[in-house]
């Protein structure tokens, strides 16, 4: 079953017939052909398999996870694929990442959503743990969903990442988080994450070493 679904997920990716002056990959999600411009010299400008797993879940579980008119923020949006798919499925999306990635992120989001979406997504800078209250004040920012794909890997900002999840998450916010397990750091982060949030694995793909989680604040999952 794992291998069949993984083959279906990876089958959503296609490549250009002719090599262009800019590297790009194509994807089929939410009834659209999505073209993503990448940069091979930066982790944040490449589409990783976790993003495909999360996009596949959003598309195939649109009744269980209805995004129409929902307020969604993606942290570590990278190339923007997850934000684009969420937008095509009807959400009002804020795609965020580091300032040096915003140009490519904005290009991909605009190219793939203009005049195609119920709500035009916005792109905004978010450096984990920095100026959170200033840029995303708790009193006025309410997100129905926080989405994240492959934000946990060997980097020195795991404390700031957890702080960012904590700041953005209200009592009724749902976190959808796709994660590839590589090193022990990932397991340690999951343990720390569970001190603040209830965590439920909703999909697991051993052949990719990727798990998809749903999370909410402690005590709110059943409510």
UniProtKB/TrEMBL annotation:
GO-annotated biological processes: methylation
GO terms assigned for molecular function: methyltransferase activity
Gene3D superfamilies hit by this protein: Vaccinia Virus protein VP39
InterPro entries: Methyltransf_16, SAM-dependent_MTases_sf
Pfam family, one: Methyltransf_16
SUPFAM superfamilies for this protein: S-adenosyl-L-methionine-dependent methyltransferases
PANTHER family: HEPATOCELLULAR CARCINOMA-ASSOCIATED ANTIGEN (PTHR14614), METHYLTRANSFERASE-LIKE PROTEIN 21E PSEUDOGENE-RELATED (PTHR14614:SF1)
Name assigned to this protein: MT21E methyltransferase
Source species taxonomy: Eukaryota, Metazoa, Chordata, Craniata, Vertebrata
């Amino acid at each position: 079953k794992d291998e069949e679904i993984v083959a279906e997920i990876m089958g959503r990716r296609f490549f250009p017939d002719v090599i262009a002056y800019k590297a790009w990959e194509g994807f089929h999600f939410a009834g659209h052909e999505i073209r993503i411009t990448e940069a091979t010299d930066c982790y944040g400008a490449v589409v990783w398999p976790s993003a495909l797993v999360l996009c596949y879940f959003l598309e195939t579980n649109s009744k269980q996870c209805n995004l129409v008119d929902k307020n969604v923020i993606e942290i570590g949006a990278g190339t923007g694929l997850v934000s684009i798919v969420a937008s095509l499925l009807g959400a009002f999306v804020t795609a965020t990442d580091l300032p040096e990635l915003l140009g490519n992120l904005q290009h991909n989001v605009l190219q793939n959503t203009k005049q195609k979406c119920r709500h035009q997504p916005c792109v905004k800078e978010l450096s984990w743990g920095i100026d959170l209250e200033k840029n995303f004040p708790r009193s006025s920012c309410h997100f129905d969903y926080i989405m994240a794909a492959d934000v946990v890997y060997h980097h020195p900002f795991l404390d700031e990442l957890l702080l960012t999840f904590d700041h953005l998450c209200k009592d009724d916010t749902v976190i959808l988080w796709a994660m590839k397990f590589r090193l022990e750091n990932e397991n340690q982060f999951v343990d720390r994450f569970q001190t603040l949030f209830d965590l439920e694995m909703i999909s697991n793909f051993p052949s990719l070493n990727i798990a998809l989680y749903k999370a909410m604040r402690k005590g709110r999952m059943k409510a």
